Structure formats: structure tokens, C-alpha cells
Fold:
Amino acid sequence: MDELVYNCLVVDDEPIAIRVIKNHLSEFKNLKLAGECNNAIEAMEFLSKQRVDLIFLDIQMPQITGIEFLKNLNPAPKVIFTTAYRNYAIEAFELDVIDYLLKPISLVRFSKAINRFYQRVNANTAGPSAAEKGNQAPDHLFLKIDKKLHKIMHHEIFYLESFGDYVIVHSEKGKLTTKERISHLEEQLPASQFLRVHRGYIISIAKITALLPGLVELGEFKIPIGRSYKTEVDKIILS
Structure:
């Protein structure tokens, strides 16, 4: 069977940034550079003529920002933001992007983003697994509580809290306690939307309202960031 090839578009107003991404792309044989654009208007015209699977999208561009551009794409290809600015990370992840890369972009960090793209594509194209047929759907979880399966939507979840063999799911509708390992629920949650920040906590990236020293704030909730998780948390949220 022929290997799948994914068409990629680079949108950036900096020639050096485009060159770096093109060089990194050349390391992946199933990623094809379909085109490059210097601004969002050029990208709109390009997308009207050619199908693209993945966009590497700068944020600070003249006339139309990358975030404004993405909000107006319907349907939107998969997107990896590439930017020199940290302060758009939370808004970016609320748009369900694959990753948020901070310039200058190393090949190691770029490779990690590509792996996330592969995972998302595989999750979308794979046939229904046992988990999808029973306990999981793309946009929700089923939690077993007192012999009953409770459906909870991903977007309703603030965070998951572990207590030994039990997990408390804190959501917009209140708390649900299920006899389950937090590591098992972590496997069922989309990595683009949820982040393990502590041995006992998984948070919704979209619910983040602020970062404090050693803590992440989700509205009225303050969740500790474990020392061994801090580096990964910073990479996801700040880079």
C-alpha cells in the first residue's frame, strides 16, 4: 500500500521563518510542501484552489492575523501555529490547533508537533475501536458510576482529580466520582485539549484563565503543577 502523503501550506511574512519550516519539512517523506504564502489573503486564495491537510500558520501578520484567519476557515485544515509570541497560547489552543511552536523552531520540537499531527489524523481516520464503541466518543467520556454510564462532554470538564483508585471529574455540571485510574482516563482524552499537570491532576487547556508560580488557574479553581511536569506544561502552554 502506498504511504499517505499530506499536503502542507506555510503562511508567514518572514522569509527566514518559511525557510526553516521548509528545511524541517524535508526531513519527513510523507509531508509535501504544497505552497507558501506571505499573508492570510494569499492563503485564502491558495486554499480556494488546492486541498491542504496541514497549515503552519504565523500569528502576527499584516492586515489579518493568523488567529483571525483561522477563525474564518470553515472547514479548517489541521493547524500548527508558528510564532515569536508566547501570549497567544491559550487562545490558540481554544481553537483546537495541533500545536503552538515558538520561534526559533528546533527540529526536535518540530518533530514533536508532527507526531501530534499524525496522532490526530490517525484518531480521525481509524475505524471504531472498542473504546469508541463503548466508553468513548470523539467529544465525550462515559463514566461508570453505580452501575450506570454517565455521559460528560469534553467541553464541560474543568479538571480531573485522582484519589487512589478513584477519579473526581470537576465539570460545569458539578462533580462526578468514578472508580477509575486517572492514567486510563488520560488515554481516552484528546491530548490537544487536556494536559496532565500533576500526578493527580489533568486539566482542560481551554479552561485555563491564568498561570501562577507553581499553579494553573481554571476560573475559581487553582491546580498545582507537579515539579516533574513543569517543563512539559511550559512547552505546551507557553511555547
Observations:
- The helical segments are 15-25, 40-47, 66-71, 89-94, 107-125, 130-133, 182-188, 230-238.
- Residues 107-125 form the longest helix (19 residues).
- The chain has two domains: 6-125, 131-238.
